[in-house]
Amino acid sequence: MKKILVTGALGQIGSELVTKLRETYGKDNVIGTDIKKREDHNDADGPFEIVDVTDYDRLFEVSKEYEVDTIMHLAALLSAKAEAIPKKAWDLNMGGLVNALEVARELDLQFFTPSSIGAFGPNTPKDDTPQDTIQRPTTMYGVNKVAGELLCDYYFARFGVDTRGVRFPGLISYVTPPGGGTTDYSVEIYYEAVKNKAYISYIGEGTFMDMMYMPDALNAIIQLMEADGSKLVHRNAFNISAISAEPEDFAKAIQKYIPEFKLDYDVDPVRQEIAESWPNRIDSSAATEEWGFKAEYDLDKMTKDMLAQVEAKFQ
Ligand code: AKB
């Protein structure tokens, strides 16, 4: 049985990953950590500790105390936020990662951390972006993600730490909102569709990005961590995607259920520039070949579920 410590447990991925891991491995075997507790925190849900990932000693202490065998390191600033405060992003994204990797090395733990489509840049091939290709990102987040991918490879090659990871696309979910990302519009559009039957997109018409529904993202993490390590050629930073879409595609999918839904644009130049530097559609075939990655939700299936779940929240 695994015993897993999750950093960034209150974030968009963390809040759902902790629940899923507790269902899979038992609630006492998953230790959620973040820089604060939720207001409605309940000890009965499972262990939770306050940990700032930039504090190595605290992360080490909590990992040792609970005798975990795995760290899933999620605490990070997303792309748009990182562009606003780049030095802070470097300190948190890189400082937190090297601390978590060091704890994994010291305590001989399995390790997961996500990279992102943000690890690609304007001169990366935009369509069917290969697993191994040019990575010259032009954002602080992208620089952090490429450095993180390399650092994880280094900890495996140099110290034998069992590091694994994926390059996540924009993740869409109804439990915890994302914060500070470039792909956040793909979540906001569903909330605004339900509340106001209209959305003003800060990402321009015709801008394609990769996306994925959260259940597919959570399954991918568990599947990769359970995979036979000897079959992994890439190990860290597997391309995975389920959907390649532009704002109009979301609008058309929503209009099947809310025909009066209206999409307008008020483009934010900062996030638009970031989006334009990322691929339109990445190729996930290495993940499929090496550990069986397969997404269940396409845009229509996800839209049906998202709208139902968001509507239920407002009833
Ligand atoms: C962001 O937009 O910053 C994230 C990501 C794609 O990594 N959702």
TrEMBL record:
Question: What processes does the entry annotate via GO biological process terms?
Answer: L-threonine catabolic process
Classification via InterPro entries: Epimerase_deHydtase (IPR001509), NAD(P)-bd_dom_sf (IPR036291), NAD(P)_epim/dehydratase (IPR051225)
Describe the location of the NAD-dependent epimerase/dehydratase domain by residue ranges. Answer: 4-230
Q: Which GO terms describe its molecular function?
A: L-threonine 3-dehydrogenase activity
Please name one Pfam family that this protein belongs to: Epimerase
Family assignment from sequence similarity:
Belongs to the NAD(P)-dependent epimerase/dehydratase family.
PANTHER family per the record?
Answer: L-THREONINE 3-DEHYDROGENASE, L-THREONINE 3-DEHYDROGENASE, MITOCHONDRIAL
**What protein name applies here?**
UDP-glucose 4-epimerase
Q: Which organism is it from?
A: Virgibacillus phasianinus
